[in-house]
Design goal:
With about 190 residues, the chain is of the alpha/beta class. The protein is built from 6 helices and 5 strands; from the N terminus they run βαβαβαβαβαα. It has one domain: Rossmann fold (3-Layer(aba) Sandwich), CATH 3.40.50. The radius of gyration is 17 Å and the shape is globular. About 5% of the residues have low confidence. This is Short chain dehydrogenase.
Length: about 190
């Protein structure tokens, strides 16, 4: 039986998990990376990462933004890193946007989405030899649509970043070999300069 993992906070985790279960999958849920330590993950065929609720802390606006980024968006990198070893060959990963800082902090939706795309590219590079498909999906997608991405992969045009070209053309397809080469280069730089 195929297994799915859904992480994030709020009622949406249960709703997405329920839809995956209705598709015949065994489903495991967790709200944070430390909760994964208490679970027997075994092998994961489909991973849906929903946003986590963050309560920014800090004495200054800069401190609260830092807290929002480190506990919310950057915390999502820790979750993916923890899940990487249990992803099976040809697994699907869906990174769902939606970490909004609320009215008390300045927001830059494009930058938040760009960080999710950085996470997606790093995940693709790390898992290039195993054929893992990674989708960045808009938080405005329905639970049904998120489950469809989890089961079939694909691209969400609503979560696409502009590539800077005047025509708005999508970026060229990056092959698994190119991701492997990029990963090797980055890891070499980290070892030499880290």
């Amino acid at each position: 039986m195929a297994r799915a993992l859904v992480t994030g906070s709020g009622e949406r985790v249960a709703a997405v998990a329920e839809r995956l279960y209705a598709e015949g999958l065994e489903v495991v849920t967790a709200a944070a990376a430390n909760e994964l330590d208490d679970l027997d993950l075994g092998r994961i065929d489909h991973y849906v990462q929903l946003p986590v609720a963050v309560r920014p802390l800090g004495e200054t606006l800069v401190g609260r933004v830092r807290s929002f980024l480190s506990d919310g968006l950057l915390g999502r990198f820790a979750l993916v890193e923890r899940v990487l070893p249990v992803l099976v060959e040809s697994a699907t990963v869906v990174l769902v946007s939606g970490n909004t800082p609320g009215a008390s902090l300045p927001d830059d939706e494009h930058s938040r989405l760009a960080l999710l795309h950085v996470l997606a590219h790093a995940t693709r590079a790390e898992m290039a030899t195993r054929g893992v498909q990674v989708t960045v999906a808009s938080g405005s997608r329905t639970d049904f649509e998120l489950v469809r991405f989890a089961l079939r992969g694909g691209e969400d045009p609503a979560a696409r970043l502009a590539n800077g070209s005047a025509m708005g053309e999508p970026p060229e397809e990056i092959t698994a070999k190119q991701y492997e080469d990029w990963r090797t280069e980055v890891m070499g730089l980290l070892q030499v300069h880290g």
